[in-house]
Amino acid sequence: MTDRTLHSSSRDLAEQAGAVLLELRARLRAEGVGPREMKRAGDRAAQESIAGGLTRLHPGDAVLSEEAPDDLRRLSRDRVWIVDPLDGTREFGEPPRDDWAVHVAVWERGELVAGTVALPARGVVHSTGPFAAGRPPTRRPGPLRLAVSRSRPNALVVDLSERLQAELVPMGSAGVKAMAVVDGTVDAYVHAGGQFEWDSAAPVAVARAHGLHTSRTDGSALRYNAPDPWLPDLVVCRPEVADLLLTTIAVLPDAGADRCLRR
C-alpha cells in the first residue's frame, strides 16, 4: 500500500466523521438536547463512522481509539490507526463553539506515517502527504503566543508564559491548539497535564508534515503504539523557537510536576 493511500484514507475518514458530527449536532440542537447527551451521541456517532470506514478500507489493520476497547492486539501489528473520533467533546456540546476536532493517524513500524486533523465546524482539514504545505507560515511579529486550555491551563504553561513574557491564547481541544501552530495563529502548544496517544498522534503527524517541531517537554521523542497509551507531555512549536522553549522548560521549578497526572 502506498503512503498516498494512507494519507487519503486518513483524510476521507476524518472528513466523513466530521460531516456526521455536524449533521448530528444541528439535529440535536434543534431538538433541544442538552450538552451531556449531545457529547455522548457525538462520541458514538463519530466512532461508528470511523470504525465502519476502516472496516471497508483497511480491514486487516489494528485500531487504537478513545471510544473503543483496547485488546492490545495492536502491539503485534505493523500498522495501527490511532484515532480520537471527537476531540473536544465539551466544545462540541456547546454550540455554536467551533474549537473541536476529529483525529485520524496512522502508525506503521514505529513511526507516524500519515494523519489528518479535521475541524468540521470551521470547514478546515489539515493533513499529511500531498495535502501538507511542508513549512509553517511566516511568524507574526510580537511576543510569543502559546495555545492554552480555555478551562484548565496547566501550571507549567502559565510559568513558561511568565518567564518568556508570552501571550496565552485560550482555545478548546488539543487538535485545535496544535493546528493553531500549523496555521500560524500561535507559535507553540505546550501541554504538561497528561494526555493519551489519540489526543496527539494525528496533530503530531500533521505538525511534522508542515515543518514544525514536536517532542516531549524534555526534548525526547514522542513514541506511539505503546502498551500504555498515556503520554504525559507534549510540545508542538515553530522550529525557530524550539530551543528557547525547551531550555526554559528545563529550568522551571515545576517542570516535571504534572507529568504523572492521569485524568
UniProtKB/TrEMBL annotation:
InterPro entries: CysQ/Inositol_MonoPase, Inositol_monophosphatase-like. It is an enzyme of class 3 (hydrolase). SUPFAM superfamilies: Carbohydrate phosphatase (SSF56655). One of its GO terms (molecular function) is 3'(2'),5'-bisphosphate nucleotidase activity. Its EC number is 3.1.3.7. Keywords: Hydrolase. This is 3'(2'),5'-bisphosphate nucleotidase CysQ. It comes from Ornithinimicrobium kibberense.
